[in-house]
Amino acid sequence: MRASVTAHKEFTVAKIDPRLYGSFVEHLGRAVYSGIYEPGHASADEQGFRQDVLDLVKELDVPVVRYPGGNFVSAYNWEDGIGPKEERPVRLDLAWHTAESNQVGIHEFADWAAKAETEMMLAVNLGSRGLDEARAFLEYVNHPGGSYWSDLRRQNGREEPWGVKLWCLGNEMDGPWQIGQKTAAEYGRTAFETAKAMRAFDKDIELVVCGSSTPNMPTYPEWEYTVLDYTYDSVDYISLHMYFENHEQNTKNFLARSMELETYIETISSVIKTIKAKKRSNKDVYISFDEWNVWYHSAEQDKPVLEGKHGWPHAPALLEDIYDFADVLVVGCILNTFIRRSDVVKVGCLAQLVNVIAPIMTVEDGPAWRQTTFYPYLYASKYGRGTALDLAVDVEGYETDFANNVPYLDVAGVLTEADGGLSFFLVNRHESEALDVELSLEGFAHSSVTMDKVIGGYALDKTNGPDEEPVAPADGNDASIVDGKLSVKLAPLSYRMIRLK
Ligand code: AHR
User: Fold this and answer.
1) Are β-strands 237-244 and 206-210 bridged in parallel, bridged antiparallel, or unpaired?
2) How far away, in angstroms, is 235 Cα from ligand 1 center?
């Protein structure tokens, strides 16, 4: 099958915000304890952070990490995680039916983030708590000194404020599973008042208001309409979440799910524009897609803990999806969608980073290892920063019962101004046919292929593990440029990343 693509220098989508490639660490399962933090591990540093995990996080070049939740934040007291470690309380975490030792709190996480060379994106608790807690936390984190909370931070060993820019006003407040769930109107008012208080402290912070937890919520998309009606002029982003599953084991459908993501983004982008017009506002609100991933492999094994059958265990294995090759293709298509919609999606967080639905896994007292999905995330994060190109794509498509004309070729292109390169991220969704891609480079002088990485040729259910990582990129060898046209053959069901100069 043939596919023709045109990239024109003058046809661009937007400058990509590097934070599109962020991630997420929640106090959930083994994300923190025996994930990023394991005192006593052979690679642990003086603070107990696993150096092997830090190395993998740095390899991914993660620009921002959301913390501390997730559902966890909606019943979290951030003050439990400050002060001498031996005096910190153990609390029952109602979101995941576990016990939280609070051995890692804001100081430790901030130190870890600095070591990981990433920025923090913090969430405040608008479930069991509210405005007062939010303003105290913000003052603790961002005020230089001379006030109760900032002096307490200094007393606890951190002289300088951390200056965190990006703040989430709660988490998934539309969800019945959320501690302190609210109606859109209740949440809209609370978020507005909290934003007002937080902005009174610092008008330059960026605020993220909760949108829908999934487009399947019965309140979607009225939720966004109502919440933005209350908060439009006070916030910078509306957050969206979406997880992808393949319980039906239908590859065609699974690979087409990113089409639903496109519709989701398009719909909320329209709601944003509607409210902007209604308010006669000059400012723009963007999307923070701060939770996304494939999540379904671990659903059955998690049930006993989530149903309380194990009591209140501390840091049990939860949401430990072991990703396969099919997930590489889906994650590739999701990242391509974000690049193509980087005009409205400015922040993205792969949920999550370590052990919990994560590209990085650890064995307690053992090695850290890369899941299959590590690689499409790695390539987008490293080579997807710059200006997104508005590609014209001509290829056959297929039908599913939820999306029409799903293109066999999924592709995104980025001009990486920092080094003058061009990156193309390609997925062949066809299960049996190769795609002969001809990509016309209009107005570009790029004439050679500098990097060509292929992930393909595996059974769809092939996984990696702590002992071996068989699913990994190989070098492609058939991409060539002649007369401004890049030609490449994409094997059936394959992921490809090609860099040009
Ligand atoms: O990322 C796992 C969970 O998914 C988060 O805690 C929650 O926000 C979402 O439902």
Assistant:
1) parallel
2) 22
In a domain, residue 483? The reply is no
ipTM value greater than 0.85: yes
> Which of helix, strand or coil describes residue 487?
strand
Q: Is 293 in the pocket of ligand 1 (CB under 6 A)?
A: no
Does residue 247 belong to any structural domain of this protein? yes
pTM of the model: 0.98
Number of folded domains in the chain?
Answer: 1
**Which of 26, 38, 108, 172 is labelled catalytic?**
172
Is residue 179 within 6 Å of ligand 1 at its C-beta? no
pLDDT tens for 36-75 read 999 999 999 999 999 999 999 999 999 999 999 999 999 9
Cα distance between residue 96 and residue 8, in whole Å:
49
In 43-183, alpha helices (H): 51-60, 106-115, 131-142, 148-155
**Residues 448, 454, 457, 460, CA torsion sign:** negative
Contact present, 28 and 69 (Cβ < 8 Å): yes
141: nearest Cα among 104, 173, 109, 172: 109
CA distance 370 to 324: 12
Which of 395, 472, 482, 473 has its CA nearest to residue 435? Answer: 395
**Domain of residue 152, CATH code:** 3.20.20.80
Instruction: Compute φ and ψ for 242, nearest 5 degrees.
Output: -160, 130
Q: Which domain holds residue 160?
A: 12-389
- 206 counts as catalytic: no
Q: Is residue 107 part of a domain?
A: yes
Please give the average per-residue pLDDT across 163-178, as a whole number: 98
Let me know: does 275 contact 283? Beta carbons within 8 Å. Answer: no
Would you call 247 helix, strand, or coil by DSSP?
Answer: coil
Task: Tell whether 357 is covered by a domain.
Answer: yes
